[in-house]
Design goal:
The protein has one domain: Ribonuclease H-like superfamily/Ribonuclease H (Nucleotidyltransferase, domain 5), CATH 3.30.420. It is 37% helix and 16% strand. The chain has an eight-stranded mixed beta sheet, sandwiched between helices. Strand 5 and strand 6 form a beta hairpin.
């Protein structure tokens, strides 16, 4: 997890020195993103993925509302900072990836990487032990295999009437976990984000979340309805918070994700950002176009998704008493 922080430090130093955000010798973002996705099942037939700069809309085609919103935001940023200002950059500077575009619902930025690039690989990745007796849902998931499950975590601007701007997903490709983050660079890209998540979700049979039955799934459904985006999440939904409460509610002070991460997964977060500050940081980014303060938000989302996989593995192991420290 220190790689992202080290990368941020390097970019901040280059920015202050007035140097380009990405060294000229850096490999193309598209090449790195493609290497993290050996299978093509999540790439839609009616959408395009383009690295670097957004794809252009044909002159003869009328601009959609998301495209017009995108143009207005970019024009406003140029007026505020100046098109030639070397400090003017986007999330592409520290999150190499590409643009996913839907013919009707517009574009969204996609950052993708392998989990092994973020932390040391564990021998148990991709495999689940036999769950304790009575855990029917977990046993069914183990029988299906993790390659048929999609982990999901959202970062939103508040209640269901507010937009979702970041969706973190993770799936097992047979060799490693693939982490994929869909980011709406402005409010007009929310529809593209929803369409991209809906397209990816179609390839899986099981959805895995933490408190997602109460929050993530209904939030996505409400926002998809608002934008007219067809959304059909996997019919089987494993919400880890309910399993965690049944297993550890008498041994832990609470069953929040960070508590389980510390007491069950034995990992302590450093440099994390409180969830309550995340909406304000995104609104600030949309208004001023400075992406640097968003780095902890992407890091927070990534930790939430990877921690879910570790909690799932712990739930499938035989019961043991949780240590007090």
């Amino acid at each position: 997890m220190t790689e992202l922080r080290e990368r941020l430090g390097e970019l901040v130093r280059r920015r202050r020195a007035g140097m380009p955000a990405v060294p000229a010798s850096a490999p193309p973002a598209e090449g790195r993103r493609r290497s993290a996705r050996p299978d093509a099942r999540a790439v839609p037939d009616d959408a395009a993925v383009v690295a670097g700069e957004p794809t252009s809309v044909p002159a003869e085609a009328p601009l959609s509302e998301p495209a017009r919103a995108n143009a207005r935001v970019r024009a406003a940023r140029k007026r505020r900072t100046g098109a030639e200002d070397p400090r003017t950059t986007g999330v592409e500077a520290f999150l190499p990836g590409g643009e996913w575009r839907h013919e009707r619902h517009g574009a969204v930025y996609v950052h993708e990487r392998l989990r092994a690039d973020v932390e040391r690989r564990k021998a148990h990745w991709g495999r689940l032990p036999e769950p304790p007796t009575g855990e029917i849902e977990l046993s069914a998931l183990r029988h299906l295999g993790l390659h048929r499950a999609l982990f999901l975590d959202l970062e939103t601007c508040g209640l269901s009437s507010s937009p979702v701007f970041l969706a973190g997903t993770m799936f097992w490709n047979g060799e490693d976990f693939v982490l994929r983050q869909y980011f709406a660079r402005h409010y007009g890209e929310e529809a593209g984000l929803l369409a991209a998540v809906a397209e990816q979700a179609r390839a899986f049979d099981v959805l895995i979340t933490f408190n997602g039955k109460s929050y993530d799934a209904p939030f996505l459904a409400a926002r998809a309805l608002t934008h007219g985006v067809p959304l059909a999440l996997p019919r089987h939904h494993v919400d880890l918070v309910h399993h965690a409460r049944r297993r550890w509610r008498t041994e832990l002070p609470d069953c929040r994700l960070t508590t389980l991460e510390l007491r069950i997964c034995r990992r302590r977060r450093t440099g994390d950002i409180p969830s309550g500050e995340i909406p304000g940081l995104y609104h600030d980014y949309v208004r001023h176009g400075d992406p640097w303060r968003l780095v902890p938000v992407f890091h927070h989302n990534l930790l939430d998704v990877t921690t879910m996989a570790d909690i799932l593995h712990a739930l499938c192991k035989p019961s043991r008493r949780v240590s007090a420290d």
